[in-house]
Task: structure prediction
Amino acid sequence: MEELYRHPPFDPRRLNAKELSPVQGPIDRNFGANLRIETEEGWFVERRGLNDRAEGALESRPFPSVVPAQRQGWFLEPRPLHRRLRRMVDGVAALMLLTLLYLALAPGFDALDIPTIGTNSVRLGLLDYPLLGLIVVPLILLPLVLRLTANVSDLRRQTNIIADEVLSMEIDVEHVSSEGTTRIQLKGSAVKHAVFASLQCGVLAPRHHHILNALGKAANGQPPPGMTTSLAGMQPAFGDGTGLGEESPMGRHDWPGDVYLRPMRLAARGPWEQINDGEVILTAPDGPWPGTVYDALVRIHWEIVVVCDHPEHGRLLHVTPVRASWPKVTVPPLVVVLTDGRAEHAEPAPTR
Result:
């Protein structure tokens, strides 16, 4: 019995997945069934060599530390402004490079009597600056300032949510089914603001030290391709070490969770179902997907995402981790679309 892992790093565009050797490790128990979840790019997770499992088997191991820390409780839905500003940053970076190239070639244009624009010097204090640079630099700083302002605004919203002692939501369910439907009952003061709910399943990245152990590498040695060197103050239990700063948005460190819900890279979501009087029937993602399992390298995680339109806090996401029973049929090889690692690129929930 063994499990294989070639999980995408935070930014997979710089790596050819099919050229990377998968991480391989033994399975320490005969639980669950064989499975394979992959993308067209070549990223995959796989368990093989297992015997047939009992129908409806449930995972008995506790939730990994990343679940209560980053996948449970209240989250903000990222504003579309964050996505637009990130694209704007790429555009202004290209504009800056073109401006520098243009200014570098300007003396040659003058020698050839080719007219130039914006190359005249403007004195500010004791130094001279090209006029074109004074126009471009504010454009470069604008998306960064707007992004910082939006982050601070979201942090304020999160602080207000934390301080709201009345805001609460609980889901009364023992476990969910990995195929078909499950009836869910919502409880708490926020139920009257709940509008939609969905059942989501995905692959959690393994802990940093499990990858290094499977590869036979020391914790302070050279990391494998796609994995960054651990930094002081990082909590490797919360990720696989491939994103670090990029996947760690601004947030309060005295409260579990992030401002936004981090996407699972290999995942599927059931349809959004409308909530009526605190009840909703959730449909599992197409597959069927495997049930909950928390091994060293392969971790299949299930959660219920509830959308609330709160009159004071705006649109909120409430996430509840759940255990899913294994399906009665054999889990087929699943091909999924690789999800972007940035939370602001997540598909927004529907509106009424």
